[in-house]
Prior knowledge:
Layout: H1 5-16, E1 18-19, H2 37-45, E2 52-59, E3 61-62, E4 74-75, H3 80-99, E5 105-113, H4 121-134, E6 136-147, H5 154-162, E7 167-173, H6 177-183, H7 189-201, E8 206-213, H8 220-231, E9 237-242, H9 264-280, E10 284-286, E11 290-292, H10 297-303, E12 308-310, E13 313-315, E14 322-325, E15 330-332, E16 336-340, H11 344-352, E17 358-363, H12 366-381, E18 383-385, H13 386-393, H14 397-402, H15 406-412, E19 416-419, E20 422-425, H16 433-438, E21 452-453
Parallel strand pairs: 2-5, 2-14, 3-4, 5-6, 6-7, 7-8, 8-9
Antiparallel strand pairs: 1-21, 9-11, 10-11, 12-13, 15-16, 16-17, 18-20, 19-20
Amino acid sequence: MSSNxxxxxxxDHYREERLPRYxxxxxxxxxxxxxxxxxxxxxxxxxxxxxxxxxxLHVPFCRSMCWYCGCHTTVAQRDxxxxxxxxxxxxxxxxxxxxxxxxxxxxxxxxxxxxPTIIAPEEFGDLIGLLGKRFRIAADAEIAVxxxxxxxxxxxxxxxxxxxVNRASLGVQSFDPKVQKAINRVQSVEQTAIATAGxxxxxxxxxxxxxxxxxxxxxxxxxxxxxxxxxxxxxxxxAVFGYAHIPTFKKHQRKIDExxxxxxxxxxxxxxxxxxxxxxxGYQRIGxxxxxxxxxxxxxxxxxxxxxxxxxxxxxxxxDILIGFGASAISRLAQGFVQNEVVLGRYxxxxxxxxxxxxxxxxxxxxxxxxxxxxxxLMCDFMVDVDQICARHQxxxxxxMLTAPRLQSLVSDGIVTVEGNVVRVAPNSRILVRTVASxxxxxxxxxxxxxxxxx
Length: 455
């Protein structure tokens, strides 16, 4: 960090900003009811038969609520609501596939939540079987599942292996007992180790760990200790996210003591300490918040300039078609985005009435497509050649640069350099890449109420 006091002050301001994570562009606050079920149906019907798609299935149930959680999920102590939901989910898969001209080829499938492994093992197998009947799942497709190690049973591990799951993302967050108590998620290293070993024995070779910084009572020391304990288990990848405290939108976050939350400077120090510990251990930094072993496909994609970003974060998945199933799931199609009903009752009612459960979405413009590519390249490569991308979109680069006045202040503060129309994030400012991306966001509401801190 620069020793210039004014520059340091400016950087503090940037760290405190609330900005999108830019896993999509435009972001969800821009979605409206102008995109509805009929729109979704038309867009699905227009997908070219040679297209390759990715699938996302949302399972919005957990056995207990983690107070930091920002996901669409609900607590289910009984299995009946989950089974009922799966009946609806299967019907939605059928409705969507009936809109397609022919079964789509699929190379990536992701189960998110909530806790997807809350599903009974036999029901998970049935769900995978249905996907295989309605879509052409490639033999080498990546099938990924998000997992809570505290709830993972031996039977479920076996079912995951039998179903061909080959990547698992285990939620860790923090091993500090004080932090765990403050976020209502008590999870031991031993539970995590048992889950990791069991998955690998079942053939789930790709294991990712998810960590969070910025949690109540978290310190640089506790962050580093958690990372060191995780490294001993040798996961293939890490995803390291900053806690997004938005109690206005997630009421359970009100149970977190705001006085115990670290400030922007402390969050920055925690993020950098985690990154340094992982890099020292041999992991390579991928974009803003992912880390992977040197032989990982994410590293190869980054080296080749082929890294992408979607709702799950950084990915090797190049498909521009993502079909989301389940309550609140978002689909990305050639024309734009569609989000399903968030409320379980409304979602179920639509599907059981034979209707696609689309609630809202966004129809992209030519300008949106241009800016989406600019932002994705910045988020993935920490640089963007505006001339090159504008040429592909047949738009004059001066038009883009003149509508990004914030770039000048970012240059003045040493956060970016601009040579010609090539924008590069300074090496010591990469943690502020979301700030740089926001300079190209034509929709950004600077009130920031719906976004997390930039760091």
